[in-house]
Specification:
By secondary structure, this protein is α/β, with parallel strands linked by helices. Among the domains are: 86 residues, Acid Proteases (Cathepsin D, subunit A, domain 1, Beta Barrel), CATH 2.40.70; 57 residues, no CATH class. Helices cover 23% and strands 15% of the residues. The strands form two sheets. A five-stranded mixed β-sheet has the order 1-7-2-6-5. It has a two-stranded antiparallel ribbon with strand order 3-4. A hairpin with a 5-residue loop joins strand 5 and strand 6.
Amino acid sequence: MIAPKHIDVVTDSGAQSCIWSRKECLASGFSMEDIVPVRHSMRAANRAPIKIDGAVFLRLTGESADGDQCEAAVMVYISPDANSFFLSKDAMIQLGVISPSFPQIGAHPASVPTSVAASEVLQPVIRRAKSDNTIAPCGCRVRALPPDKPDCLPFDCTFENVDRMKEFLLERYGSSSFNQCPHQLLPSMDGPPIALHVNEDARPVRVTTPSPVSIHFQEKVKDGLDTDEKWMF
């Protein structure tokens, strides 16, 4: 049992797993014997491999601005390549940092827009989505085909507008390319069939061993498989 410690973390809504610096982990009272061996590989955003020593199971607690206590039970991967404690999206949801429907627009309205320019671009689209009733019963956007190529961009394509471009693309293709709702069927799309280019001399190999799934992903993977089976049969 390790005594409670104060840890500064880096919130990363794009992270699928919590990861902690080996140096900070050992400094907090853990030893290498406390780290559970795991068969798991990770890559950084630039696709560089991240070395994993193993994992530890932690209960994170924090206090909200109103004084309420929030908790999260997480499995944290320990790495000598990390330089801090990176909090994953799931951990942020458990702690109430972001809503379960993040990054759905309008799920948690802000009192002040983060950018006047971005607000000017997105507000007409948000109003149109509300009036068109494009939200499915599950709370996700209704799946739709990708919109046509725009005739022109609402702003100049410059380095200074990278953040605005990201928001514009996420909003424009939020119902199609970026819609990851597991409860809706994909809309039919026209186009040539996918061609599989295989060497004529290649011999097919039957694979019956399923790929291992990390324990903290098992529930999500099972839900996805159940959804696929539902729509298939």
